[in-house]
Design the sequence.
């Protein structure tokens, strides 16, 4: 499968998912399902974080510090966007070379 067809398939899947959401907007779902669905964003973010920690072994301390800093930001601000921005900035800054090692 070439890249263009992969992109088109993903675009159709996203469109179908959104269309389904619009078509089922008036449907009432049980309250237990609503409570369960409320945890999907947190579970997705957790899956991304755990998957990102399994990167190259040389970057594990950097990734762990970025995750901890993002967690602190999330704890004190209560905002998901602050958690994401702080995590990305911390990761980027920690990967910068501290000094030149050459002569």
Sequence:
């Amino acid at each position: 499968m070439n890249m263009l067809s992969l992109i088109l398939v993903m675009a159709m899947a996203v469109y179908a998912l959104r269309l389904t959401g619009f078509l089922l907007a008036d449907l009432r779902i049980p309250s237990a399902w609503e409570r369960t669905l409320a945890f999907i964003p947190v579970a997705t973010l957790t899956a991304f974080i755990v998957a990102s920690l399994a990167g190259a072994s040389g970057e594990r301390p950097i990734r762990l510090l970025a995750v901890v800093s993002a967690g602190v930001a999330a704890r004190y601000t209560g905002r998901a966007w602050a958690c994401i921005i702080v995590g990305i900035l911390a990761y980027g800054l920690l990967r910068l070379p501290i000094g030149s090692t050459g002569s």
Remarks:
- Residues 3-23 form the longest helix (21 residues).
- The chain has two domains: 1-30, 39-97.
